[in-house]
């Protein structure tokens, strides 16, 4: 085969790949890149073991640390009254994601973190325990290309086939969110990122909490509104105001950041929903405790916890990289998934609890 023919074939392959990466809300678009950032599927057996590591954590000590910083928002939780709500939707945007059907779910009362877990909070955890995240152990994590320095980009030869704007970056982890030459200075009130499901579960366990179930997360997102797209209703920009950190402009080349942020925003940014929770959609994706499945029955369930096992965990809410033309998943019913050892620069979490941890209860 001569060189011009090979060149033609190469161009054709690149065009096909690019088409696979665009998003027109068809079912083919299911692999939009949100769920392509997986390390592999061999590590499932490690999931439970690691979350036991911090069972003996000194909660009083942690409470003292939080209080001495006079940081009222650290680990602040809100009581959420249980009851019946409608989970999922009968008007799915991504049918293959299992957004439907809508079904009645009954939940008992629970508590939810008001904010996504911040770098400041995660640093307290790391300093108290010496915990190493999986991105640190593996030595890399996925970062969105345009957030890297030219120096870092120049040293990278791989990309994610389904989403070439994601690059595996050596030395990227929660302390270096945008490559090894970046840090969290000035971003301590931003959500921690590059945390795997295992990392998130370990943090919540240490804090005397747990990850929310998908049902709890979605109930908290909807905040008492039924059948709405967003935590406040169906209009993305009520009165022209931004209420969520997502992508404005042309994805993936032009982020106009009309909401004020090209990447993460402080966890306290943007108005809370009716339950008092911030950034349930947008900013960073949030891990839930459920294993991933896409076939749901319309049966009325009580405190569902998802299937007993699987290969991926459910994440909810979308991130600062979501746009309606691409990964339109900043909706309460939307969902995506990754393997529990995966991490990326737009994936974080918040914790829930069945009972308020003692150290967070009002001091007598
Ligand atoms: Ca934004
Ligand atoms: Ca979020």
Structure description:
The protein has 364 residues and is of the alpha+beta class. The chain has eight helices and 14 strands. The strands form five sheets. A four-stranded mixed beta sheet has the order 12-11-9-13. The longest helix is centred in the N-terminal third of the chain and has 19 residues, at 3-21. It is globular, with a radius of gyration of 20 Å.
Question: How do you describe this structure in short?
Answer:
This protein has helices at 3-21, 47-51, 59-68, 119-129, 134-138, 150-154, 197-206, 214-222; strands at residues 77-80, 83-87, 103-107, 110-113, 140-144, 166-170, 249-250, 254-255, 285-291, 301-302, 313-316, 336-338, 347-348, 352-353. By secondary structure, the chain is α+β, with helices and mostly antiparallel strands.
């Amino acid at each position: 085969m001569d060189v011009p023919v090979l060149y033609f074939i190469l161009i054709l392959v690149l065009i096909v790949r690019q088409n696979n990466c665009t998003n027109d809300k068809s079912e083919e678009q299911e692999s939009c890149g949100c769920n392509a950032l997986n390390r592999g599927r061999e590590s499932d057996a490690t999931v439970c073991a690691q979350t036991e590591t911090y069972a003996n954590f000194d909660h009083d000590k942690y409470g003292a640390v939080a209080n001495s910083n006079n940081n009222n928002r650290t680990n602040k939780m809100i009581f959420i009254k249980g009851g019946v709500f409608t989970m999922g939707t009968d008007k799915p945007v991504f049918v293959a994601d299992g957004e439907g059907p809508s079904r009645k779910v009954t939940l008992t009362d629970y508590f939810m973190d008001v904010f996504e877990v911040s770098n400041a909070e995660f640093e307290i955890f790391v300093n108290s325990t010496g915990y190493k995240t999986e991105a640190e152990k593996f030595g890399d994590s996925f970062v969105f290309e345009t957030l890297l320095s030219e120096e870092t980009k120049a040293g990278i030869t791989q990309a994610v086939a389904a989403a070439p704007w994601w690059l595996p970056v050596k030395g990227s982890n929660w302390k270096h969110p945008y490559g090894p030459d970046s840090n969290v200075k000035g971003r301590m009130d931003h959500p921690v990122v590059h945390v795997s499901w295992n990392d998130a579960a370990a943090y919540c366990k240490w804090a005397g909490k747990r990850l929310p179930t998908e049902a709890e997360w979605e109930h908290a997102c909807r905040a008492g509104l039924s059948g709405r797209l967003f935590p406040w209703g169906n209009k993305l920009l009520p009165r022209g105001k931004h209420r969520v950190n997502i992508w404005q402009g042309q994805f993936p080349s032009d982020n106009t950041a009309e909401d004020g942020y090209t990447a993460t925003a402080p966890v306290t940014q943007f108005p809370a929903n009716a339950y008092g929770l911030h950034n349930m959609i947008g900013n960073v994706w949030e891990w839930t405790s459920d294993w991933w499945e896409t076939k749901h029955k319309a049966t009325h369930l009580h405190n569902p916890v998802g299937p007993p096992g699987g290969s991926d965990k459910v994440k909810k809410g979308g991130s600062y990289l979501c746009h309606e033309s691409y990964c339109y998943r900043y909706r309460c019913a939307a969902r995506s998934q990754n393997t529990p050892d995966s991490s990326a620069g737009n994936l974080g979490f918040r914790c829930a609890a069945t009972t308020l941890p003692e150290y967070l209860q009002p001091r007598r």
